[in-house]
Specification:
CATH architecture of the largest domain: Alpha-Beta Complex
Distance between the termini: 55 Å
Structural class: alpha/beta
Strand content: 15-25%
Bound molecules: 1-O-phosphono-alpha-D-glucopyranose
Largest sheet: 9 strands, mixed
Radius of gyration: 19 Å
Shape: globular
Number of helices: 11
Order of helices and strands: EEEHEHHHEHHEEHEEEEHHEEHH
Oligomer: single chain
Strand order of the largest sheet: 5-4-1-6-11-8-12-10-9
Helix content: 25-40%
Number of strands: 13
CATH class of the largest domain: Alpha Beta
Length: 290
């Protein structure tokens, strides 16, 4: 019987150099989109897909992440004293259960594959999800990971979320060599990390959501270096092709690359326009100024 995916790995060790100087003191995953840190969106997406345990692969300087998911005792007491029910409800709704989060530390920046491998003792022999919080995949009615879990229930094996990107951007992503397509699922014949310009096998790019079988960890353990001299998740996954079912899932919904300044600002605009409290003011400003 196929094991359900109950654990998710969030690689959150990156230095966030594209957001300096803010990231000197604030982890990039804590940068807000409207009023929630980026990481909260990824955690909400995982919860909506039935994930029960969150594993954060952190690094030096990421203490704010642990504080964020803790109970802010003094703050809660003060809000209660002042009768601030709405604010208390916000804290409540973002509070995870005791023990629902585990932290492991990536001791050196050796790549995404290395970060995922750091979680191996917690994922054990179970399948797991990987969510890159920089990628804000926004579909509140039917979040990406939940769509992927449904797809995996049909086909089993590895499922990675993809979207079409322009040809000139393929060198920034893991790109799929596609086989047969049925609905949103495409068989994966090859998977290449950051192909050189003009060599990409398609325009189907991995967008930071993966459902992975435990066998991937043994491949990552070999520590082979790939693009950029780093241990790449893409390369380890590529080795599973032909050994297990492996599909690309074309995600239906909005995507904001919040690892990029323009993407992050755009996400703030798009999500604020959807909000009843601040949407009208933002819309009015845009109308008057653009
Ligand atoms: C990582 C992955 C890449 C994927 C991308 C999505 O790259 O290695 O395969 O397409 O995330 O954002 P990074 O952006 O960390 O260099």
């Amino acid at each position: 019987m196929m094991k359900p995916v109950k654990k998710a790995v969030f690689p959150v060790g990156g230095m966030g150099t594209r957001f300096l100087p803010a990231t000197k003191a604030v982890p990039k995953e804590m940068l807000p989109v409207v009023d929630r840190p980026l990481l909260q969106y990824a955690v909400d997406e995982a919860l909506a897909a039935g994930i029960e345990q969150m594993i954060f692969v952190t690094a030096r300087g990421k203490g704010a992440l642990e504080d964020y998911f803790d109970i802010a005792g003094e703050l809660v007491a003060t809000l209660k004293e002042r009768g601030k029910q709405a604010e208390l409800a916000v804290l409540d709704e973002t509070q995870l259960a005791p023990g629902q989060i585990a932290y492991v530390r990536q001791q050196e920046p050796a790549g995404l594959g290395h970060a995922v491998w750091c979680a191996r003792h917690i994922t054990g022999d179970e399948p797991f999800a990987v969510l890159l919080p920089d990628e804000l995949l926004w579909n509140p009615g039917d979040p990406c990971l939940a769509q992927m879990v449904r797809a995996r229930n049909e086909v089993g094996g590895t499922v990675i979320a993809v979207m079409e990107v322009p040809e000139e951007e393929t060198h920034r992503y893991g790109i799929v060599d596609p086989g047969a397509t049925k609905g949103a699922l495409t068989e994966v014949r090859g998977f290449v990390e950051k192909p050189k310009a003009g060599t990409a096998p398609s325009r189907l790019a991995a967008v930071g959501r993966y459902l992975i079988e435990p066998e991937c960890m043994a491949i990552l353990a070999e520590g082979k270096r790939g693009a950029g001299g780093e241990i790449q998740l893409t390369d380890a996954l590529a080795q599973l092709i032909g050994r297990q079912p492996f599909h690309a899932f074309t995600y239906a919904g909005a995507r904001f690359d919040c690892g990029d300044k323009a993407g992050h600002v755009t996400a703030n605009i798009a999500l604020s326009l959807e909000r009843a409290d601040i949407g009208p003011a933002v819309r009015a400003w845009l109308k008057a100024n653009i």
